[in-house]
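Researcher: Let's try something more involved. This one mixes different molecule types, so please make sure each is placed in the same coordinate frame as the others.
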Amino acid sequence: MNASPTRIEWLAVALRWGLGAWMVGMGLVKGLDPVAFLKAVRQYELVSSAWMLNAVAIWVPWLEVFCGLLLLAGVAVRGTAWLLVSMLVPFTLLVWRHALILQNNLQIPFCAVRFDCGCGLGEVSICPKLAENFLLMLAAAWLGWSGKGQRLALRYELLGGNVPAECRTTATGHGT
Amino acid sequence: MVLLTGLLFGWLANAVSPRGLQWTRNYFPLAKVPPAQGEQESTGTPMGSGEVSQTEAIARIQARGFIAWNFARAAEAFEDPRRLTGQVIWVDARPEVQYRRGHIPGASHFDPYRPEQQLLEVLALCLRADQVVVYCSGGQCEDAELAAHLLQQAGVPRERLVIYVGGFGEWVQRGQPVASADSSGKVQQPSLQP
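Model: All components are placed in one shared frame. Result:
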């Protein structure tokens, strides 16, 4: 029988599920209305070619859904978490840059800037949005760095795969 | 590995989705209009802070060669009895879900991002009309211009196409009548509208 996992292990599971559910939800909102997301991506003037713009608008939402499903299921958690970080960091920087442009154009305080960032929630205030993205990045980075959250993971616990060595200290007897 | 599988997943999901995008299509064929002299530079966004004035939108529409109408002109056209005979028609270029929720009575839906869905029906109406009033949400929304551009390319003379700048947002704000689509979402003939 497995030993009781520590609180931190359960916290990691909760984070994994929370992050996974969030990514699936936000990815579906964008993926099911790709034109709205396409318009949102266009505003960042990230790419000039139509093909590249379409590729971003097609891939990003479904990649989020895919990553979310992997996190929920507990498959390739660390790789998925780092992939999310690598998507969230440039996206957050783009949102920040665009907010600075709007602030400059409209001559309003930074936190008064509101726009549809293409995040799936419609028009949002910039400061809560940046805080939210920072928390998501923090959660994903911690999951990727610590390797925790293997409890109830499809790969390790439910299908009986090997638990990575760094996880055994907190989840003793876990799949070994 | 996760990335590659995710990209494959995205490609498949887009391929099977009825709302999927086409990889090579240019969804924004209209040239970007530089802001008029003396005006603040726009962010170029179709959605945003809602601070862009109608003046800027009118300048943009005119720079693209279309006629821009304000609310007074649009309201006048709405009262025009020729609307009931299909000589003056309205085209709603907003997303279908917004059109179903409410639109200007008699307006036909035409999504410029999926023109193949309604183009033939709308084109038939437009070719019979003397005046085609195209609108979207208003403000920074450029969908009406895009729809007008596609209709013009399909054969509707440019001089018949006008854009109601304030769009549906202003229409509602001014307390004008609103109709909602029937459950089938079928394009409705203007003559059948109240």
